[in-house]
Amino acid sequence: MCATCGCDQPGMIKITNMRDALFPQVHHNHGAHHQINIATNDNAIKRTHIDLEQDILHKNNLLAAHNRGYFEAKEITAFNLVSSPGSGKTALLECTLRDLGKELDFYVIEGDQQTTNDADRIAKFNIPVIQINTGKGCHLDATMVKDALAELKPKDHSVVFIENIGNLVCPSMFDLGEQKRIVIISVTEGEDKPLKYPDMFAGSQLCIINKIDLLPYLKFDLQKLIEYARRINPKLEFIELSCSSGAGLDQWYAWLKRQFAFSEAIP
Amino acid sequence: MHELSIVMSIVEAAEEQAMKHQARAVECIDLEIGNLSGIDEHALEFAWEVGVKNTLLEKAHYNINKVKGWARCSNCDCEFEIKELFDPCPLCGEYLINILRGKEMKIQSITLLN
User: Fold this and answer.
1) What domain range is A133 assigned to?
2) Strand arrangement, sheet containing B61-67
3) Per mean pLDDT, which range of A20-24, A122-126, A156-160 is the poorest?
4) Are residues A44 and A79 in the same domain?
């Protein structure tokens, strides 16, 4: 029953597929009985009440679905890399492009508020890269990624890395259409980060713990970090590595290839 | 400060409805916000003032209907209120919990002035 007027139409709009979702039906178009006329001195103010029941991020989620469909159709594996500033997202990409650049086709979308510094670092590997500068924006959204993909034109069967803005809060809300979200944390950051920024850890599938070569010099409890992150997301996978010493990179590459193989297997 | 993006999304959705119904302004918006949605009410209030300027929502007000976080334990099936994503099951202490409610971020209804 409709909660507004008691009519027998359902009060919730359910989005079932993309086409329907693009043209959401507002069931309260069914007559004028929600229009309330209030007579004032001269003018009648007419009000229209609409039960929308629409997700606030409806548009972003639609475009994320669009991107996801694009990736699936082209059998592209896309990753959204998120972390605080300075955890080593770009360094991890540099290692990956250096070591696997000949084996796989990579494309990179770099997100930063300002500068093309990160894209410049990636371009040195002769990898197609697009830089998105968000200005004051604190996260990438699905529209930006859609526009970047139109420019980037990644080949079928390739891997697309989307390096998000360094920020552990806002990017967690915005689905970009990626298959997997990878959160990177470095051991210089403190083991309680998952508890401080739980949304990011809740929404990620892989947690890369970077800069492990620095562990001997720090009071950092690696097991505690894993325990805290698992409290929020029991399914989260972990890879410990160091982009400077190269330790653990083989595990990351093996994980990456598994995702690629999985994506290719999608009928 | 993702709340500004949130406000912009609300403005976009509400103006779309206003156009459709040939309204001259938006009077009121009812929002449903879960306690686990990651939206900070104070930040939203601040972002609202900035985000609605020069839009049909400039004089609109909003109401927030809060939704409590609610979860079910995968281990013992107990259902309970959670305040944080990392709250354990109060019965068995397990962290294997499924969020049932509290992540909502919805525009419930809009009142337009024609």
Assistant:
1) 74-265
2) A35-39, A44-55, B105-113, B25-34, B61-67
3) A20-24
4) no
Contact: A56, B107; criterion CB under 8 Å? yes
DSSP A172: G
- Domain tally for chain B? 1
A142-151 residue pLDDT tens: 999 999 999 9
CB A109 within 8 A of CB A116: no
| Number of domains making up chain A | 2
Whether residue A118 sits in one domain with residue A80? yes
Tokens 């900035």 correspond to B50
Q: Is residue A172 part of a domain?
A: yes
What is the domain extent for residue B53?
Answer: 3-113
Q: Do A50 and A169 belong to one domain?
A: no
pLDDT digits (tens, 9 = 90+) for A59-77: 999 999 999 999 999 999 9
A180 and A85 co-located in one domain = yes
- The residue of chain A with its CA nearest to that of B22 is A48
Nearest-CA distance from B99 to chain A in Å?
A: 11
Verify whether the Cβ–Cβ distance A174 to B5 is below 8 Å.
yes
Instruction: Round to whole Å and give the CA distance between B46 and A64.
Output: 27
Prediction ipTM score:
0.90
CATH of the domain at B87: 3.30.2320.80
Q: What is the structure's pLDDT at A45?
A: 82
Give B1's contacts in chain A (Cβ within 8 Å).
138, 170
pLDDT in tens, A216-234: 999 999 999 999 999 999 9
| Residues A50 and A78 reside in one and the same domain | no
* Site of tokens 């690629």: A260
Measuring CA to CA, which residue among A88, A122, A99 is closest to residue A253?
Answer: A99
Q: A251 to chain B nearest CA, in Å?
A: 26
